[in-house]
Design brief:
alpha/beta; Arc Repressor Mutant, subunit A; 2 domains; Rossmann fold; 9 helices; about 15% strand; about 220 residues; binds adenosine-5'-triphosphate
């Protein structure tokens, strides 16, 4: 994201790609304006939150008119740096890693997995979903040669911290961590942690322990 977005609160910034995807679809279908109610129903964020978020973007919706789709689209593409392709690497070509290599990230946002790394000699040298798999031994060289600053990590938990230390040394700026390991890294490294097993368990827990009336509240808490 560019400089302008540093003023936006983090919870709002996290919703940006969600808004962007919906606004892009509206734009392709030829819509000129959208109300916060329509947006709210589509992206499942309550309209008060949407209005607050959009006020940070300088988008002031008018009563009875809504928001201007063109304005929002150009704001989101600029803020999310959609004109620049962000190259990403993936480390750990197991079941989850392989699924990501086959997933077409570029369809919805301007990121692309450029290459992958693994320690398994059976996987090194192969091409999966158009992405070449290299040996982890050569990771630093490839990262430097290609100026890549973002990594997705899908290795076993036990290997995660050591790889993180190497990524930090190799000037990586952001890690999307799918391992259950809680990683230690300097403050300037941004780590987003997605533990699918924990998310699933938490969903099941909420279904069992909270009534329907509480659901909206829990969704809102999740988003902020
Ligand atoms: P699979 O069925 O291929 O074993 P999995 O997702 O169940 O997949 P994991 O044990 O989680 O397997 O390993 C994920 C991937 O990470 C595997 O491809 C494995 O070779 C690789 N891997 C294991 N240790 C490391 C490491 N230190 N560095 C990089 N990759 C590693």
């Amino acid at each position: 994201m560019n400089q302008e977005s540093t003023k936006i609160p983090q919870a709002t910034a996290k919703r940006l790609p969600l808004y962007y995807r919906f606004i892009k679809n509206l734009h392709s279908s030829g819509k000129q304006r959208v109300s916060s109610k329509e947006l709210s129903e589509a992206v499942k964020v309550d309209s008060a939150t949407i209005r607050r978020d959009f006020s940070y973007f300088g988008a002031l919706g008018k009563k009875g008119y809504g928001y201007n789709v063109n304005y929002l689209l150009s704001f989101f593409s600029k803020t999310l740096d959609q004109d620049a392709l962000t190259k990403v690497v993936l480390i750990g070509v197991g079941n989850l890693g392989t699924a990501f290599l086959h997933y077409n990230f570029i369809k919805n946002n301007n990121t692309k997995i450029e290459m992958a790394f693994d320690v398994d000699p059976g996987k090194v040298g192969s091409i999966i979903g158009d992405v070449p798999v290299y040996s982890l031994d050569d990771m630093e060289k490839h990262l430097e040669d290609n100026g890549i600053e973002v990594a997705i990590m899908t290795v076993p938990a036990g290997a995660a911290q050591n790889i993180t230390d190497r990524l930090v040394q190799a000037n990586i700026k952001g890690i999307l961590n799918f391992t259950p390991a809680r990683l230690t890294a300097p403050d300037h490294i941004r780590i987003h942690h997605i533990d699918l097993a924990v998310e699933l368990q938490s969903l099941v827990y909420f279904l069992k322990n909270y009534s329907e009336d509480d659901t909206e509240m829990s969704q809102e808490e999740n988003r902020t």
